[in-house]
Amino acid sequence: MPDNIRDELLDILEAVSEAQLRTIRKLRTPQTRQSSEGERSSERMSQIDMVHNILESARQPLHIADILQLVSKKFGVDLDRESVVSALAKRVARKDRFVRTGPNTFALLSER
């Protein structure tokens, strides 16, 4: 086998082995525990899941400002307003979990 192909193959095998070792070490670290309410931690929750959780708890339509404030308070995460509104608008258009009840006001689809 030519030296340059051998060296490239060894480089690839080394990179794969390092990635596997990083994954094993990451798996050994303690996982984030679920909260006493049984909710997933905010590190593992998507923005849409956080918004869904807030609207589910509220059981009424909420303005985006209120949603963001409650997400920040409950999960300790400051979400970008435009990103959340855009994501919610896409879900509303697909009739996926959310409905728009007014200007920048959203509710869960089943609550309508």
Secondary-structure blueprint:
Elements: H1 3-28, H2 47-58, E1 62-63, H3 64-75, H4 81-93, E2 98-102, E3 105-108
Antiparallel strand pairs: 1-3, 2-3
Helix pairs in contact: 2-3
Structure description:
There is one protein chain. The chain is built from 4 helices and 3 strands, in the order ααβααββ. The longest helix has 26 residues, at 3-28. It is elongated. The chain folds into 2 domains: 1-33; 47-111, Orthogonal Bundle (Arc Repressor Mutant, subunit A), CATH 1.10.10. Helix 2 (47-58) packs across helix 3. By secondary structure, it is mostly helical. A 3-stranded antiparallel sheet has the order 1-3-2.
Distance between the termini: 69 Å
Overall number of domains? 2
Radius of gyration: 22 Å
- Identify the CATH architecture of the largest domain: Orthogonal Bundle
Q: CATH fold name of the largest domain, please?
A: Arc Repressor Mutant, subunit A
Summarize the structure.
The protein has 112 residues and is mainly alpha-helical.
Structural key phrases:
112 residues, mainly alpha, 4 helices, 10% strand
